[in-house]
Amino acid sequence: MTKQEFKAGEIIIYRSPQGPEIQVKLDKDSVWLDAHLIAKLFDVNRPAIVKHINNIYKTGELDKKTTCSILEQVAADGKVRKMNLYNLDMIISVGYRVNSKRATQFRIWATKTLREHLVKGYTINEKQLLQSRNQLKELQNTIDFLKEKTKHELLAGQEKEILDLLSSYSKTLTLLEQYDKEKLTVAKKAKGKFILTYEESRKVIDGLKEDLMKKREAGNLFGQENGDKFKALLGNLYQTFGKKELYPSLEEKAAHLLYFVIKDHPFVDGNKRIGSFLFVYFLDKNNYLYKNSGEKKINDNALTALSLLIAISDPQEKDKLIKIVTNLLIS
User: Which residue ranges make up each domain of the chain?
Assistant: First the structure.
């Protein structure tokens, strides 16, 4: 006796040692055979099977609505003919009434193998339901987190940006699809080719400082480094452990770049502006700043809100913020 992997709509093959090979259709969490195939399966004549089925319905052992399905087929002469298909419950019930060696063999296989599969299928669905609840909890936690942060004085006037941020985040989750997959984690998708070096970063920061000073929006302390913090920060983005990158995806690197520059204060002045600018520069260099529609994945207003959220956040909230940023970037 053999079986293939059970999936809805696929064909399962049952083969007894001495008997014929029969194709069994799996649908609606059960298998379905017509009376002719059941007779062939148990090595008896079809009238005997029909008699047993009628007696099973007559005594109320099984309900016809749940165990019988009508299949319409177009015959060779072009006429539509209806065929009754019976599910696993009926097949097993008939098997208990049929007195043949083949019936006993199938009954043993069916009860031990097919029922085991159905139980496993239920277990998998149960796990998916639990994951769905976890997804909802994850989204609710993010809503509560953003709602709480809007009360902070530094975020006064940013309510709309926070709301837009939450809206984009919710859409990015694609909840209906992810509920059937796995719990939301840090998004890991793209691989970036552009490497942000210290020398490149300094040129960008110096250019930004020059422009801002011309507008009188920055002073001499803007971009001045606090020791070697910034060099160490860039090194952390490409850090490896066991020959594997700690932040392997482009999204993770970008999110951590934004977070570290703002939160670790590697500069005397301008951390939020420098972090945001390098974040955009890094994404742009990796051709990852825009959606297919041409719209920025994280627009300027949303980025401002994110920067302020990171600035006022507790260090223990780092993972939550990284999740928000990475999931916004995969859209």
Answer: 11-126, 150-329
Long-range pairs of 42-45 with CB within 8 A, sequence gap ≥ 24: 42/94, 42/95, 42/98, 42/100, 42/102, 42/103, 42/106, 43/19, 43/100, 43/101, 43/102, 43/103, 44/98, 44/100, 44/103
Average pLDDT, the chain: 77
Name residue, tokens 């920067």. 307
How many Å apart are CA 254 and CA 101, to the nearest integer? 67
Q: What is the pLDDT of residue 260?
A: 96
Q: Which three-class secondary structure state does DSSP give residue 45?
A: coil
**How many CB atoms sit inside 10 A of residue 93's CB?**
19
Tell me how far apart the alpha carbons of residues 269 and 181 are, in angstroms, rounded to a whole number: 44
Q: Give the Cα separation of 100 and 122 in Å (integer).
A: 32
Residue 221 has pLDDT above 60, yes or no: yes
Q: Which residue has the higher pLDDT, 28 or 79?
A: 79
Whether 161 has a pLDDT exceeding 70, the answer reads: no
Q: Is pLDDT above 60 for 57?
A: yes
Give the residue from 230, 249, 228 showing the smallest Cα distance to 238: 249
- Round to whole Å and give the CA distance between 83 and 67: 14
